[in-house]
Amino acid sequence: MNGYEKAQALNLTGTDAEIVAVLKTLTVSNIAVDAVRVWLRENLLWFRTSPTTMGGSIQAVIESPQTPSETKQQLGLFWSAVFGDGARNLLTTVPTWAGLVWQIIQGLTQAAPDAAALVDSFYALDGGRPYKDLTLQQFATQRATAAVLETKQAALDLVQNTAAEAAREEFRKSNSTSESIIAAAVAVLEA
């Protein structure tokens, strides 16, 4: 499914730029929380140092007095999902949640030496982001292609309906055999 089709399936609205921005955050499937915990630990970002204490570079950000409260709130929400009770998956196939996870992951990896690779490694946990490289031009082309296909399908439906109606009418008039009905339909299509 291309980006335009996915946007239609999700009923995304807004400008093309807004829609493409949302599509770029979506993943192939939701990301398992267990995999996220392992990823955070392996990258020394956030891990339990004891049953009640966290360590890692994210914990240092949380404990810093310079960290904005909004960032701390987002990280708290992320902590609840990953280390708290109940969540099995990060809903990265759902636009609202995918966008929030995207913001958090961008923030978590910003200070890393190779942030882009770290972000890609996070999203590889579920198979990646199929629309991460989608451009506005590609989206516009996909929209135009869909419009052409829709117009062709509508024309084909009209021709088929017209041919079927003409064949039924011919049958009613002459009480013809199936061969003559088919011949009438072919004649209408060729006209």
> How is the biggest beta sheet arranged?
2 strands, antiparallel
Query: Shape, please?
Result: elongated
Helix tally equals 9
- Pattern of helices and strands: HHEHEEHHEHHHH
Quickly give the structural class.
mainly alpha
Mean pLDDT: 86
Q: Summarize the amount of helix as a percent range.
A: 55-70%
Distance between the termini: 36 Å
| Uncertain stretches | none
Question: What's the gyration radius in Å?
Answer: 27 Å
Number of domains: 2
Secondary structure topology:
Layout (H helix, E strand, L loop, with lengths): L2 H7 L6 H8 L7 E2 H10 L4 E4 L2 E3 L1 H7 L5 H15 L5 E2 L4 H15 L5 H9 L12 H39 L3 H13 L1
Antiparallel strand pairs: 1-4, 2-3
Helix pairs in contact: 5-6, 8-9
Model description:
- By secondary structure, the protein is mainly α.
- It has two domains: 99 residues, no CATH class; 55 residues.
- Helices cover 64% and strands 6% of the residues.
- It has nine helices and four strands, in the order ααβαββααβαααα.
- The protein has a two-stranded antiparallel sheet with strand order 1-4.
- Strand 2 and strand 3 form a beta hairpin.
- Helix 5 packs across helix 6 and helix 8 crosses helix 9.
- The longest helix is centred in the C-terminal third of the chain and has 39 residues.
- The radius of gyration is 27 Å and the shape is elongated.
- The chain starts with a helix and ends with a helix.
